[in-house]
Prior knowledge:
By secondary structure, the first copy, chain A, is of the alpha/beta class. Helices cover 38% and strands 24% of the residues of chain A.
Amino acid sequence: VNACILTIGDELLQGNTVNTNSSWIGRTLIKYDIIVKKIITIGDDIESIIIEMRYILNSGYDYIFVTGGLGPTHDDITKNAFVKLFNDKLIFNQSYYNKLKSKYEKNLIKMPSINRSQAMYPEKANIIPNNFGSALGMQYKDKNSNIFVMPGVPEEMKNMINDYILPELINKPLSDNVITIKTSGIMESKLAEKVNKIIIKYSNSCKFAFLPSYYGVSFRINRIDHNINIQDVKDEFYKAMEPYSFGINDDTLENYIANKLITQKHTIALAESCTGGNIAKRLSSIPGSSKYFLGGIVAYSNILKTKLLHVNLETLNKFGAVSKQVALEMARGIRENTKADIGISTTGISGPDSLGKKPIGLVYIALVSSNKTIVKKYNFNFGRNAHRELTTTATLNIIRLSDLF
Amino acid sequence: VNACILTIGDELLQGNTVNTNSSWIGRTLIKYDIIVKKIITIGDDIESIIIEMRYILNSGYDYIFVTGGLGPTHDDITKNAFVKLFNDKLIFNQSYYNKLKSKYEKNLIKMPSINRSQAMYPEKANIIPNNFGSALGMQYKDKNSNIFVMPGVPEEMKNMINDYILPELINKPLSDNVITIKTSGIMESKLAEKVNKIIIKYSNSCKFAFLPSYYGVSFRINRIDHNINIQDVKDEFYKAMEPYSFGINDDTLENYIANKLITQKHTIALAESCTGGNIAKRLSSIPGSSKYFLGGIVAYSNILKTKLLHVNLETLNKFGAVSKQVALEMARGIRENTKADIGISTTGISGPDSLGKKPIGLVYIALVSSNKTIVKKYNFNFGRNAHRELTTTATLNIIRLSDLF
């Protein structure tokens, strides 16, 4: 069962918005054995949408997911494109208009007059409700393709897929043909070397893919021979990938850490320098993270390192802010300050400028608990943003592995 | 002049990686009047790449940017696809192989043997050097299309475009047909209402687009009649959009704040609760931000609010953590603690759970300086992640506008 995603919007072509919708859809569908074969992005132009949709419809996808261009402004023309494509027409829905109007009035806002267009709905389409916004979704069927047209606002689109499209309109069981092993702390080529023999062993019964990102390397197993047990294959790879393998499918380092800390009844606090709040952001992205994540200090300046984290001025002057010694004092400082069980710190050089004789990319990560003191040194010299992201992932991985060190 | 982007990788289709490459390329090219008309993503499959490339080549784009699939593992097959597409062949480059090997040896790592493939290079292609990684880029020409094939690693791709493709291989001047006005603090439909008359006035000489995102609404002006002065048009819209308009093109709230604080010689520190480090992350994403951004405290738990920010326990108990009063005490606390000129705080309910009688989406943002005390209340009820992102943007916007309040 395959799918195509068509995302519409000049803001995507011109890079004002990153296309997170298509990756979310791909990630969600694969769990139901629906494989996205192609993602296409085009601009807000009726003719382009029609041409592209005709081409997509001729390619015979089972499911076609369309997002974007359902808003109220003049460049939101997706509804008109589909009306033209399917020889449909728009009809004014008085009751939906009243509902929209009263929603605005409840918030003491006068509804902008252009929002009237949100109550115009194509006659032949099924309505997909929108729990978060004003633009309704549409379902069309054409030959053997099932087409879902949704707004580009991520929360609205996700809600439509999770609450209506997957349970009601698709209604397919979760798949047992695909498993993804999540790893952290090893680069793609090293991981490939590690499992090369097992890949060859299963090469006739499974397809494999290495999926690298700033969050680690994922390894996807796709069963093609239904006589083999995919759980056994997964277990064999998982074991060979230890201690880098930490979970499967939707598991993340953040989730792993959440479960671990909740089980151990441990709390954690951060002293971030070069990561500038990114680790805090990732830890606190988990709902309920306040149970184990107390918070932390972003000691971006040296002043805060001494003032709030009580890093010794002598240590700073003697070894420099980016040093093993300062990393340790930062981790100790945040632990004492917050009474957290585990104190974590990062200090490094993200660039673009280097720091004295120390190279861009250098970073120290420290972890301090009642019975452990760990400092790790890395060099991630791939640009400022990559440095911050890779340091964040390396830190989360140190927290995950801290019982092993 | 138009372009098409082809991004290759199962990790993009299956959503393990978000496609940030294509948005970066789109954003970069538009400055040179090269308009991306289409972005296509397909998987790591030789036949799919060849079919897709033939279709793209027939569509007559001036430039075709291809990323991904140049790594060393078995599923990196882009090079082989292009060799087949252009009846080319791979040749082993001994000197590049030696260079790669010595690079690994310098870092005291044995080069994985599969990296040998990185020294295999197509005979007919021009080499595009890679300053950050081992995979070389390729340039092909076909009919009137200029094709650039690059690795999927963002830093490597960006460096190839910035250092080789734009200055040497394309060598086009910066455009004066497109200007984007950046706004913050107003929603798309309200902004559209505000400038509707000016849009009508220029409807024959320009094309316009509203580009909404979590970072604000951008407004793109595209000149089609060369007799008008695009700067004048921009100025007219910019004025009508005040005080929401804050910059053009690549300007960001973070850059605006950087310039403002550096000029005013002011420092800033943060006390973040619901945003969990996201504001710190965005402020510290600017190289050199340590000049004005001292850092801050992520007071995710109430314990840190009282202990490190000195929020009064009575205030917390009486008004709750998400209240005007606690927001103010947090901003005052971080300002006093760090001696920053400006203290900023956020406290809100990102969800999924609400807090007592207070609704999900509620948030208070406070700013305290020597002569100002501002608290703003918002409700961003569009899901947890949107709440954190919109609160972050609203906070940066309050910093931007603080002189006006």
